[in-house]
Amino acid sequence: MRFAMNHITAPNVSLEDFFAMARALGATEVEIRNDLPNVVGSWDAAAVKEAAAKAGVTIISINALYPFNVWSGDLPARAEAMADYAAACGAKALVMCPLNDGAKVAFEDLVAALKAMKPILEAHGLTGLVEPLGFPISSMRTKAEAVRAIKAAGGENVYRLVHDTFHHHLAGETEYFPEWTGLVHISGVVDPDVTVDAMLDPHRVLVDARDRLENLAQIKALRAAGFHGPYSFEPFAPEVHDLADSKSAVQTSMDYIRAAL
Prior knowledge:
By secondary structure, this protein is of the alpha/beta class. The protein has a single domain (3-260), classed as Alpha-Beta Barrel (TIM Barrel), CATH 3.20.20.150. The protein is 40% helix and 15% strand. The chain has helices at 15-24, 39-42, 45-55, 75-89, 107-124, 143-152, 165-171, 215-224, 238-241, 246-260, and strands at residues 3-6, 29-33, 58-65, 93-96, 127-130, 159-164, 181-186, 231-233. An 8-stranded parallel barrel has the order 1-2-3-4-5-6-7-8, surrounded by 6 helices. β6 (159-164), α7 and β7 form a beta-alpha-beta unit. α3 (45-55) runs parallel beside α4 (75-89) and α4 packs parallel to α5. The chain is globular.
């Protein structure tokens, strides 16, 4: 397993300690964020690059440009600024998430946004990691729609998908796109009472034997189909964030997944 680590796994840990924790767990690929914690807004890009080099980790993405499919207002400027930062800190890609507030976004607008973002990514040598959100209120729920839009935008050379095991399950999507996938986000839901349509980010914990999202089945399907990229831990649950020993908890989840596979 090629495990990676998203900073949301341990958002209360400093950037240097997060990098060190990932490396100690054998994960040499990490994701930084612009929300929780807001590394992009609080760290100089050169300092982030230096810290990553010191720890021996590669920054595979910055998470995330939102809402990328509504190309208006300050979004173009924010996209340029995030791309500048990514290039300066050594990140390889930008995660791009769609509008998630119940409003519809036309397919033509999705395509237009991908077309507008393409030259920004190309100029900075970055990949755009398009992440469908499976929530019922999301404006782009499936990977199938994302792939269709990427093709319509002529973005095959610059865009890849994020396969998020949580959102794949919520969307009820059964199709896998291993050849389009650049990154997998993994998290589990163990609450036995919450319905699928009511699952939210705070329900997302580390993957264990109680998982309801069929993470193991999804990972097996991706591996069998030829995906050998990174599987990045992305739990949002407060009880995970507040753990006194995040490293041990992630190690336990890693060991469970490896043994189960």
